[in-house]
């Protein structure tokens, strides 16, 4: 059974979250105080509710307590996000993901019950910086603690092209773990036209690296950077 996710606050950030979750077949409960926004998203999600998100009774009546996780996606409404997070915690919701605008905001959100804090602008800045520093790194995510995750694209002419994973021995030589390999694949649409999509493939020792492959690796920052320099 798929998880049910509630999203509170449907600005650009919140809207993108529900759009992505819905595309992946997730059951989404969307909550916002704007009737106009609720009208816009109602066909995207399982349920969309217009309510005063600071009204605890209305929040409980919305069915938010049935969600497996709640995302508080409010942006600059710092006080509101703190109050809502606190109410969700008091309702007994186990997983509360909250957007923070500053370190102080994040600290308070954690104190009132948020189980995970996200910094959208900061995270995006880090990802862009890594892609500029190392063009082969297509995406970079700080996982927290000592581990980060990176997607590294294999370009034409790279010395790894044509080599087996067994020869490269990524984990031993570079001290990063290869999780999966993303590849471009052409498929036929229902209309009969060719469409390009990206598929993931589990790595195996006899797999030969191809140009265009995207290696998804996890490791510490230093080792990922050193491995990325090989591309």
Query: Helix/strand/pairing class, anyone?
Result: alpha/beta
The CATH class of the largest domain is identified as: Alpha Beta
CATH topology of the largest domain: Rossmann fold
The H-and-E topology, N to C, reads as EHEHEHEHEHEHEEHHEEEH
The CATH superfamily of the largest domain is known as NAD(P)-binding Rossmann-like Domain
Q: What report would you give on this structure?
A:
With 231 residues, this protein is an alpha/beta fold. The chain folds into two domains: 4-118, NAD(P)-binding Rossmann-like Domain (Rossmann fold, 3-Layer(aba) Sandwich), CATH 3.40.50; 123-228, Regulator of K+ conductance, C-terminal domain (Alpha-Beta Plaits, 2-Layer Sandwich). The protein is 34% helix and 28% strand. It has helices at 12-23, 35-41, 56-61, 78-90, 103-111, 120-133, 165-168, 170-174, 221-228; strands spanning 4-8, 27-32, 47-50, 69-72, 96-99, 116-118, 137-142, 148-153, 177-188, 194-201, 214-219. A six-stranded parallel β-sheet has the order 3-2-1-4-5-6, sandwiched between helices. The longest helix is centred in the middle third of the chain and has 14 residues, at 120-133. The two termini are 41 Å apart.
């Amino acid at each position: 059974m798929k998880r049910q996710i509630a999203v509170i606050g449907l600005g650009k950030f919140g809207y993108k979250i529900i759009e992505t979750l819905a595309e992946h077949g997730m059951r989404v409960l969307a909550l916002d105080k704007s009737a106009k926004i609720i009208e816009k998203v109602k066909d995207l999600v399982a349920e969309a509710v217009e309510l005063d998100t600071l009204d605890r009774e209305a929040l409980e009546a919305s069915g938010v307590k049935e969600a497996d996780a709640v995302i508080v996606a409010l942006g600059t409404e710092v006080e509101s996000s703190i109050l809502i997070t606190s109410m969700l915690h008091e309702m007994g919701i186990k997983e509360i993901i909250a957007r923070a605008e500053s370190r102080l905001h994040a600290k308070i959100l954690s104190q009132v019950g948020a189980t995970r804090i996200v910094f959208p602008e900061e995270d995006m800045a880090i990802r862009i910086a890594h892609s500029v520093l190392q063009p082969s790194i297509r995406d970079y995510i700080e996982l927290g603690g000592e581990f980060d995750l990176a997607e590294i694209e294999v370009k034409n002419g790279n010395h790894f092209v044509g080599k087996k994973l067994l020869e490269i021995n990524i984990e031993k030589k570079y001290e990063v773990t290869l999780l999966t390999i993303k590849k471009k694949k052409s498929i036929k649409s229902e209309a009969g036209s060719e469409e390009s999509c990206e598929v993931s493939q589990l790595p195996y020792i006899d797999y030969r690296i191809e140009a265009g492959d995207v290696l998804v690796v996890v490791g510490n920052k230093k080792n990922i950077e050193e491995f990325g320099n090989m591309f």
